[in-house]
Amino acid sequence: MAGKRKTGSTRRGAGKADAGTRTGTRRIWFFGDGRAEGRAAMKDLLGGKGANLAEMARLGLPVPPGFTIGTSVCREYWDEGRRLPDALWRDVVKSVRRVERILGGTFGAGPAPLLVSVRSGAAISMPGMMETVLNVGLNAETREALAKRTGNARMAHDSHRRLIQMFARVVLDLDIREFEQALDSLKARKGVFDDTELTAEDLANLIETYREIFAARAGMPFPEDPWEQLRMAIEAVFRSWNCDRAIRYRELNKIHGLIGTAVNVQAMVFGNMGDTSATGVCFTRDPSTGRNVFYGEFLRNAQGEDVVAGIRTPQPIARMKRVLPEPYAALVRAKDQLERHYGDVQDLEFTVQEGRLFMLQTRTGKRTAEAAVRIAVEMFEEGRLGKRDALMRVDPHVLDQLLHPTFDRKAPRRVLARGLPASPGAASGRIVFTTEDAEEWAARGEPVILCRDETSPEDIGGMHAARGILTSRGGMTSHAAVVARGMGKCCVAGCSATVIDVHEKALRADGQNLGEGDWISLDGSTGEVMLGQVPTVRPKLSKHFKTLMSWADEVRRLGVRANAETPHDAKVARGFGAEGIGLCRTEHMFFDEARITLVREMILAEGADARANALARLLPMQQRDFEQILTAMKGLPVTVRLLDPPLHEFVPLTRETQRATALAIGTSAAAVKRRVEALREMNPMMGHRGCRLGISYPEIYDMQVRAIARAAVRCAKRKIDVRPEIMIPLVGHVNELSTLEERARRIVEETFAAAGVKVPYLIGTMIEIPRAALTADEIAAHAEFFSFGTNDLTQLTFGFSRDDVNAFLPDYLEQKVLPVDPFQSLDQNGVGQLVEMAIRKGRSARKKLKIGICGEHGGDPESVDFCHRAGMDYVSCSPFRVPIARLAAAQAAITARRKKR
Amino acid sequence: MAGKRKTGSTRRGAGKADAGTRTGTRRIWFFGDGRAEGRAAMKDLLGGKGANLAEMARLGLPVPPGFTIGTSVCREYWDEGRRLPDALWRDVVKSVRRVERILGGTFGAGPAPLLVSVRSGAAISMPGMMETVLNVGLNAETREALAKRTGNARMAHDSHRRLIQMFARVVLDLDIREFEQALDSLKARKGVFDDTELTAEDLANLIETYREIFAARAGMPFPEDPWEQLRMAIEAVFRSWNCDRAIRYRELNKIHGLIGTAVNVQAMVFGNMGDTSATGVCFTRDPSTGRNVFYGEFLRNAQGEDVVAGIRTPQPIARMKRVLPEPYAALVRAKDQLERHYGDVQDLEFTVQEGRLFMLQTRTGKRTAEAAVRIAVEMFEEGRLGKRDALMRVDPHVLDQLLHPTFDRKAPRRVLARGLPASPGAASGRIVFTTEDAEEWAARGEPVILCRDETSPEDIGGMHAARGILTSRGGMTSHAAVVARGMGKCCVAGCSATVIDVHEKALRADGQNLGEGDWISLDGSTGEVMLGQVPTVRPKLSKHFKTLMSWADEVRRLGVRANAETPHDAKVARGFGAEGIGLCRTEHMFFDEARITLVREMILAEGADARANALARLLPMQQRDFEQILTAMKGLPVTVRLLDPPLHEFVPLTRETQRATALAIGTSAAAVKRRVEALREMNPMMGHRGCRLGISYPEIYDMQVRAIARAAVRCAKRKIDVRPEIMIPLVGHVNELSTLEERARRIVEETFAAAGVKVPYLIGTMIEIPRAALTADEIAAHAEFFSFGTNDLTQLTFGFSRDDVNAFLPDYLEQKVLPVDPFQSLDQNGVGQLVEMAIRKGRSARKKLKIGICGEHGGDPESVDFCHRAGMDYVSCSPFRVPIARLAAAQAAITARRKKR
């Protein structure tokens, strides 16, 4: 690449710096004074940092001058038995001379001594692996020169001290505890607390101590020769590339194919050279609100570390205009140029050294969700970004902050424990332990958090009454989690770090003993359980948000539906832009307090007659549910899933409730207990549920299908356009579906015929069993649509019980055995193969098969991207994630289009 | 087809019978008198029965003459609005005339009245769907002629009575209860118990009553005209093809593509026309022992139904030589010809009418396992079969009978209940309910059956002491089932029809109340629980068996290994011809009474140190295990699976055992209880087990790998050739395997280096997680072998928990939602796809990848056939199934070779 580039020979001074051209291999790339030999695209050779410094310099920005030794030299260093190539040093010296000329200083001598930093930087960023030596060039002589020139002897001495320590650690790999002990004992002797309270003289003495320690530990004196310092620092960076820690890091992070690290040698500049000097940090726009104002802080006569130490308070950037007008004007030009160049908000670091501005770093500015949206929209309106680029600028994940009530980020919080983030939201309330207490306290207007070891259908009333639910047992698909998500209620489940003793009405966590009435707060999005009341905020949706969403809708191909089972949720979802319901779980309706007894009667019935009786009484209730939800979603499709969970999720578990149930349905408590025990399963996730119930107890599905059909008829008679889609869950073999589909279709047709009404409807299935994906062609012959239930599909494809995965998944993520939690983001490599296979086979058998996803992945941006590429028709997610999915779908469409080109 | 055949015009009398040739479509195929117009290959047109009758006639055998109306006529009948084709009747009449000529009788007239049977018969056998009308041609006149001719008025009258009733049911679809009531009331009036006690006169009266009932129900008199009888019967057969019951049957059995049923009209012959007549049943060889002797019985002057009625005792077939020498000689000729023709033992029915032999039916003879083996071997030795054909003659399934002790088939048995066939074998013993009682009674020399609701590690001692184990809860992979199979002990698990009250020492089943000391018997192969002591038999392996097995070994390509974890099992497996161990489960060794406390200490350890301590003490024990088993299998590979089950399978569950454990390991009972509860899982099948334990607690796998390596070293030093293969279970992601494989390899190499010994070994993985199959190429990069764990793979691919599947699988099989239990026979369509994919991808990444199966399917013949086709290297199954797998592998090779040609 270097050979093809125009060499610097036509440029000023380039003849002296075009190192390596004589041998045909360039080893050093110079930057500074408004130009550079490298550029952003040369990351492989210059490393990330070197390429960025070059890019800034090429833009004409005042970067402190310096040069990058290419990654290929690292390879040479190792190939030649840890020896720097002969030609390199000549070029290094020449490059340092060039830096001297630009800045008008001298490396290793006064009166204006030049100091440099030496930093590693590979093509891929490896946080924590970066080796840095600052202040290279300091020795007794240059230190005094620096002290004189800056009028700040303390600073000069402190820099020298730091160099010795840093050099010892980075270059010679020494244990630095002795240096720290020497510093501590000095401070103790002087009776001071902070380093900054030490005088220049104290530090001069300390330097002597450091020299002694260094010599004793290293077996050599600290090198006084700055060139020797520089050479050793460069070699140390190359050596660091193959230290155990770095090799382990690259292995762990699966970083392959790099040839080595580059070395950046750059002039150090000082913001503490008097009142014409300063240092600061700024953003091109307000990163908190997104407003287009120059935003930041600066500190006169200071170095960056002074800002960090927090001893002096920085001033708003606008004040700099008055006190340092010229550097300020240059800074404003620079920030405008950088924002335009990168097309995004930049986070800048700068130093003014004696009235001269130096840009130290620029990077994309982190921002709040609110700011991200506003910036993207306004940058389009300003003509700085195309609409597609603006859409790509906002990370869909962050929208979560805008949609859910969240805890005030500024409020202090004391985290007691962390459980599973089972149902998102933020809630504060007073602890109660029973459903009765929850209802009673709530009736008095008290906000309560229901705390249980685990919940059962008896707790439904209490869960309704509570602001949030905390359980110490059970997983993401436990009763508490499923019901809470259904209710849209905040829930932290399986929080095993808390001990909940319902009997004693006591909750213990992190050494705290809490009881009934004490305040706690739950964050259902992070799983955090916090002490006391943490204030929440509910952000409003801005006009910028609406604009961005409307653009997303223009661009995306994927439909976006919501998972919802109540008219309220359906309305929320519509408000967020849902284009239908992709998953309406009918069992939620079964858990309703008023019905659970009837449901239990149905389950505990001895024989088909008694069961039919209970079902006949459930029918009108389910019909009413469906009528309401179909009405709420008029004009849009509603996918209703027939009963899915195993029957034992509905039965009474305690002796009292068993007795009460027995009384209610006219049998003995012993009979109830017997039946409950017979229903118990070893692995309920893979047990008697879904369509397996439909095969064993056809009358249950018959009732549900009849209720849907009758609800559709009632709506049609009221001239409401409804589009029910009946979904048969857990199909693994075509015969399951063909049997149940035929039966359902007969019931629907009979109902329509009896009413003299016809409503368009579909019958389809969930693809959530691996075998269904493998035989999707057979299954598609009987299904008008597929909806991927990727929660269960992930469980079965991995063989991971979601309820139990917490025992080992944290280890897996920490040890990087898995890159991400496959329940959060779809495993495209494994589960994705089954999804793609099912789509291909399904469409081969039925060209117009409608295909969507209704697992929780439907709201995960990476998974949405996969769904787009896989050719699905829609994704469905919880109502609050609908905007996230809309944006993610737009980004997926844009990305796919760009890849095609 | 008919058009191309040579018509019968050149044959004797054929000119009169070549029905349909004038229109170019043959509708009727004649057979009899040593020739036939059809043949065996014409099943589609003649139906199975018609084709077989034709084939027998073609062989020159004396079949009662008759003709088959083709299936195409059935189609015509329905296409033309349920009308027989005009031309058909003329041909029927001609064919009946031809039958008359051959037998010298007259249809519908005396003195020698011809009677015929009319039977349906489609191309695919549909048991229970067959329509038959016998004795067509009888009326008042012919009945008397028949009575006179046979000298048996009672027989003639009874035949007439039966015709009326059969005609009413089959032809007119009438309810026949009134006929039966009339017969019953006649018997009551006459004070007789059996039909045969009624006189000819009684029956004549009954016929009049029947006529009246018939006329009243049918709205028409019973047809006296034999031709009318015949026409109506033929139409009835065609009509029956599309009755609801037949349509449902074909749907349920997925019988498609048939055009209709054929109709067989055949002369009836009578073995009860005096002493020159007879009837009998025989086999070409002894179906019980397989000896090559003519075997069967006959009865003079009798019809087949007399044999069935059991009033007269039949005589051995050899006696027939003396009393009916000519028919006997003809019969011997026929049986020789038939056995030669079909190349297999035949089960024959014959009738001698007035000295003339008629062959009524021939079919492949059912036989015992012992006979099957002997017949196949001897028929090869006699030159009647090739070796490959001989191998194909024995159904591998039946070998089970020869290998396991079984209950005496002749002994009476009273089945109390049926549970899961968890571990094969047959055992009788006295009921005990606790492990202490089991040990105590067994020490006294009493055979005992341990009966528990479920077992836990505390019961190991009792299980050892017992002859068999019965549990009322738990599935095929419950503790009881797993441990019993490991011990090779008979076990019936999950027998929910029994109520076992351990506290009360009571067992209730099928109305019986049993207690301690009462005798029961368990059949672990069928799941039957029987009252009392049922005698068992243990068959010896014959020389024929050994011969057959040696042929199988010559022919098969697949290797056959055994699943075994004790030296004893390993030796048994070698004795049965196993070529290695495909699955040695290390956890069985953990369950051992002496070690369980150490294992518990390891599990309950707080922190890695305590765990390491317990593991260090387990190491020499495991090493000894491995040394013994490797020695027992010297020269052959032994695949050792590292720890697989979740840790909670090992922990103490009762308060007493928790207290004892706490005492033993020096902690509190509360701490033990807490840890046990923390280990509890919702879905243990998909929980913290297999390689997930290896990732979380690397020290456990380290200990096991070290034990294997040290055992190998010890053997090598004793000059024993051992070939350990280390198998890492439950891998779903390549990173799991790469992490553990690397670690294991390091330990093995270190151990070998320290000992200065090298032993060949492999490290590989089980493919039992769908994701592993989907990403087998990635996984093969780190695995030297794959072993398909098809039990778990089936569970996860179907989403069926094997422990819970009993709640719905019986429904599925009964309703034919699934054709077979996928845990018995590999689901080739679904699970098989994953297996094939994994083999393809695995070999694409590693050409020499060794591939086998170690799920229970490895002993199922159909699954073995699949494994052969899929290109596996070996199958592994329980020791007692090794011969089955050897034979199945040979058959698979033969079948594949034949298909290729």
Give an account of the 3D structure.
- The structure is a homodimer of 901-residue chains.
- Chain A has 901 residues and is α/β, with parallel strands linked by helices.
- Chain A is built from 36 helices and 34 strands.
- Chain A has an eight-stranded mixed sheet. In chain A, strands 27-28-29-30-31-32-33-34 form an eight-stranded parallel beta barrel, surrounded by six helices.
- At the A-B interface, helix 27, helix 29, helix 30, helix 32 and helix 34 of A face helix 26, helix 28, helix 29, helix 31 and helix 33 of B.
Keywords summarizing the entry:
homodimer; 8-stranded parallel β-barrel; 17% strand; elongated; disordered N terminus
Alpha-carbon distance between the two ends of chain A: 25 Å
Question: What structural class should be given to the helix and strand makeup of chain A?
Answer: alpha/beta
- Give helix % range of chain A: 40-55%
Count of DSSP-assigned helices of chain A: 36
- Uncertain residue ranges of chain A: 1-23
Strand content of chain A is: 15-25%
Largest interface: A-B, 52 and 52 residues
Q: Over all CA atoms, what is the radius of gyration of chain A? A: 34 Å
Oligomer: homodimer
Major beta sheet of chain A, specifics? 8 strands, mixed
